[in-house]
Write a structure and sequence with these properties.
With 387 residues, this protein is of the alpha/beta class. The chain has 14 helices and 13 strands. Helix content is 45%, strand content 16%. It has a 7-stranded parallel sheet, with helices on both faces. Strands 10-9-8-11-12-13 form a 6-stranded parallel sheet, sandwiched between helices. Strand 12, helix 11 and strand 13 form a beta-alpha-beta unit.
């Protein structure tokens, strides 16, 4: 039985992984935008994981295609050889996929898989690249390596003004192609109010990758600082590591043990749905050390009517701007994070009163419906300009 083709045609969406973190969840909204607009949507993933099932639930066809993913290891000799081998394999597989599917547009989600820009150019298929990265602190070589393939794209979507600025500063000629579209961030099905009074320990929540750049160890140190000040705080850590960085998770476990914090810090691992953990906590912390292109977790906290304390850096400043329940602190500073927790406790009544107003503002800024409409418009423009 032959699969039916839509009147608009086929849109091919390329993504570098199959997990359910920030850019993965935004991809789901982009795919929904395409499907709701009438596109037959095919998503290519290089690996398998929980994202596949979520894409299929939304009506996308998911196919496996090996794709080289740019990582820092590619700057080393062995990494370069591995990348070259993966590129040849990915090129052949990608070429066959494009021949079979005959897409009218290619949507490349993140700048770490430039092979699809190259294939699109060679096959004369218009390409939209969605930039979820903001590597302002990276070396000039890394920034150039990531941004150069964007010259092969017809439209560039950046998830924040910060991300757009990183691209435009590196290559000003790309500025005319860049469109800023803030992430569509779905809130919880039912946002419950926070505790009216903080009876007992304050419950902190961290959600995201376990990696040094995300500063999970800083949050653990802040719990220790608070304990030394006589403030009892617990921390729920939700998330997993990148393959190959399991050492960091072990380092965190050792940090908790050496600080005698086993009763206060709990590791929950990866969870596809985090709303129950957020609802059980009082304050969400986003203690990133390095640049963040945006801050979906901060927005999710606000949508859940929970105060958020985030590092005062890059896209996190953009994500938290204008919210009474959002506090920003010096990155990589456990003392500053602990100070902010204490200030939040002292102003708890005010924070709880402002939480619903902030949640409504976040819904207006980041509603999935508005996001989907913007993506649909850009894809329509991409194809129309190519005709």
């Amino acid at each position: 039985m032959t699969e039916a083709r839509s009147e608009l045609g086929t849109a091919l969406v390329a993504h570098p992984g199959a997990e359910l973190y920030g850019s993965d969840r935004v991809l789901l909204e982009s795919v929904s935008a395409l499907i709701e607009s009438g596109w037959r949507t095919v998503v290519t993933l290089p690996t398998d994981g929980p994202l596949r099932a979520e894409l299929q639930k939304r009506g996308a066809r998911v196919v496996h295609c090996p794709t080289p993913v740019l990582r820092k290891s590619a700057l080393r000799p062995l990494g370069m050889l591995r990348l070259a081998r993966e590129t040849v394999r990915g090129f052949l597989s990608g070429w066959r996929l494009l021949t079979r599917e005959r897409p009218q547009a290619i949507y490349v989600n993140t700048i770490t898989i430039p092979l699809w820009q190259v294939l699109g150019k060679l096959r004369r298929i218009p390409v939209l690249a969605h930039v979820h990265e903001g590597e302002a602190s990276a070396s000039n070589l890394v920034q150039a390596m990531l941004a150069l393939p964007l010259f092969l794209c017809d439209i560039i979507v950046a998830n924040s003004r910060f991300s757009a600025g990183v691209v435009e500063r590196r290559f000003p000629r790309l500025a005319s192609r860049v469109q800023v579209v803030y992430n569509g961030v779905p809130g919880p099905p039912h946002a419950s109010p926070g505790r009216p009074r903080l009876d007992g320990p304050i419950q902190l929540t961290y959600i995201g990758r376990l990696s040094p750049r995300k500063g999970v160890d800083v949050a653990i140190d802040a719990v220790s600082v608070l304990s030394a000040r006589g403030v009892h705080a617990n921390l729920d850590v939700v998330g997993g590591v990148f393959p190959g960085t399991e050492w960091y998770e072990q380092q965190l476990i050792e940090q908790v043990k050496s600080g005698d914090l086993e009763e206060q810090v709990r590791f929950h691992g990866f969870r596809p749905c985090v709303w129950d953990v957020v609802a059980a906590g009082d304050v969400v912390v986003v203690p990133s050390r390095l640049d963040e292109p945006f801050g979906d977790t901060a927005v999710e906290a606000i949508l859940s009517r929970r105060p958020v304390i985030a590092s005062a850096t890059s896209g996190l400043l953009e994500a938290t701007a204008g919210y009474a329940t959002a506090t920003t602190v010096t990155p990589d500073n456990a003392q500053a994070l602990a100070d902010a927790v204490e200030q939040t406790v002292e102003g708890w009544t005010t924070a709880i009163a402002a939480a619903e107003t902030d949640a409504e503002l976040a819904r207006r800024r980041h509603g999935p419906e508005e996001y989907r409409a913007r993506i649909s418009q850009l894809i329509a423009r991409l194809v129309a300009d190519h005709r």
